[in-house]
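> call design_seq(struct)
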């Protein structure tokens, strides 16, 4: 039986929230803020956020499919290009977004509930949602208007590859964010670095023709593994490149996350105070 002499709780006093509840509330507010900034910071912002990457992908499809006459064994080249370009562009957007997350949200760090890591989570979620929406729009158009096969062959493995992509991009994004915070001039070098990486990951050119020993050197690139594995699980008749697997980029993502979190914990106070 309840002790009647014990003080009764004050109904007007708000209940204490756990750290997880506070984090969820902060993430939700930051995601809404990022969406508002992304979609409504300019006229027709929601349209341009989707139209710009879609136009870029469609133009590349037209150039390489119809003008250059490229083919991919067993699958339509336009579909091969789509399931290679969009995952790479998503990872690049996450990395570039995290590089500028701290500086774009510096004013929010006056609230002790908001940490720099929360801005990483919010920007990653927004970039993933945007990329998935673009993929669905383009896939729907290619399937229902152009008669291409549905680009979802093994959905579970496809989702696992997507998770590894996001984790790997987050790890690099946090590391580059800390590097840019210490050396702001490095941002231009990092952005420039992704131009050759765009080509060396097999995004727009099949890499099966690369001779040895140069092909084995390309296998050190985790982006190449992720792009090709995503194609393998998206396209039924696609022949994967030799030597690619999901284990290597997954291990790279875990090691990168460990290094990123360790470096972040050492530099967290500097990010807030500077």
């Amino acid at each position: 039986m309840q002790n009647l002499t014990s003080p009764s709780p004050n109904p007007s006093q708000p209940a204490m929230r756990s750290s997880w509840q506070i984090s969820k509330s902060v993430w939700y507010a930051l995601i809404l803020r990022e969406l508002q900034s992304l979609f409504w910071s300019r006229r027709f912002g929601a349209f341009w956020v989707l139209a710009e990457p879609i136009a870029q992908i469609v133009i590349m499809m037209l150039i390489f499919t119809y003008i250059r006459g490229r083919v991919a064994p067993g699958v339509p080249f336009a579909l091969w290009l789509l399931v290679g370009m969009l995952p790479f562009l998503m990872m690049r957007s996450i990395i570039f977004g995290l590089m500028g997350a701290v500086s774009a949200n510096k004013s929010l760090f006056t609230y002790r509930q908001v940490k720099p890591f929360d801005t990483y989570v919010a920007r990653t979620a927004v970039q993933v949602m945007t990329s998935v929406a673009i993929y669905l729009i383009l896939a729907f158009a290619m399937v229902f208007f152009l008669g291409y096969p549905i680009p979802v062959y093994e959905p579970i493995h496809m989702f696992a590859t997507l998770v590894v992509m996001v984790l790997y991009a987050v790890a690099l994004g946090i590391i580059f964010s800390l590097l840019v915070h210490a050396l702001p001039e490095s941002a231009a070098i990092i952005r420039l670095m992704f131009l050759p990486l765009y080509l060396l990951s097999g995004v727009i050119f099949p890499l099966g023709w690369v001779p040895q020993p140069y092909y084995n050197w390309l296998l050190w690139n985790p982006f190449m593994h992720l792009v090709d594995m995503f194609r393998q699980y998206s396209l039924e008749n696609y022949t994967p490149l030799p030597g690619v697997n999901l284990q290597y980029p997954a291990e790279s993502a875990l090691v990168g996350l460990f290094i990123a979190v360790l470096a972040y914990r050492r530099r967290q106070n500097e990010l807030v105070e500077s």
